[in-house]
């Protein structure tokens, strides 16, 4: 019987376990504050975030959020490279003797990371539950001491949500690498030519990369705009009810909650049509246009190469922007809660007013645009893989 200790499968098993180790530090920079609302790193970074909420253009706050992308990207890079080379050196070969374990090792690493799905889902559910508990406490007019407890739980929930979003963007990076390799293999199989490299020195391919990066920024902008437009509709509805039902202010009349819920529900579907269409049709249109251009210029694979470049640049830009948005939103939210504990003047102070403004900006960052980019990255890879034949 073959000794399993020398089998190539032992390399892949080690890699699957390694994912649990390498992705542990992944969300550290997303944890701007701990569950009590106090600065997480001895006060320095906490003060910078607070000052950033007081002055939204503060270079200290921008420095903190931009710097937060460094460690996760390093962890992702090390994980992908180590997964590929552990699989490649495992001894798995094809019929001709060429090593084939690289991509399989990356796939095993991805599954190893996703094996923590139950733990990640549990942390992700904690945030909305704690947030809704705070809303119920306010609506039921509970004592202030109860609200203080739910605020602490809400701050913890923001941190756990930041951690789960870190796992989401990490899995999106690994999955996109696999789908990108599958796309290149599919193009090579259909075109009957080797397709192993994407040369960005080619003008059209470089333009495809620019379009991919632009897609991420435009999608994020439209997602944030959708939240802003809907929020304004809700504000107008609340103002209308205050005018028509003045008893709401002294609790002698009940507000029409159903109307606000209907506005949010319908707008969430209507406003996201444009970003969704952008994500679906952009790779198809780009691939088809450059396919025609390649046919005119004598480059039959130009459309496929441009789409590959667009996917590559969109994945890289999407990872960085998602990390930025998730960290910025969570930090703004917890900074507000920290001030509401009595720090920097507490509720009603200028710091608190600025923190509310920051939280208003941070909510679409961390709850809409940031999580949407995780889906966008994987959806782009899937669409390009499915539509590869029309690019040839």
TrEMBL record:
GO MF annotations, alphabetized: diphosphate hydrolysis-driven proton transmembrane transporter activity; inorganic diphosphate phosphatase activity
Transmembrane annotation, as ranges: 61-87, 99-121, 166-184, 205-228, 276-294, 306-325
Keyword ATP-binding: no
Keywords: Ion transport, Magnesium, Membrane, Translocase, Transmembrane, Transmembrane helix, Transport
Membrane topology qualifier: Multi-pass membrane protein
Gene Ontology cellular component list: endomembrane system; membrane
EC number: 7.1.3.1
Pfam families per the UniProt record, alphabetical: H_PPase (PF03030)
Localization (cell): Endomembrane system
Protein name: H(+)-exporting diphosphatase
Organism of origin: Aquilegia coerulea
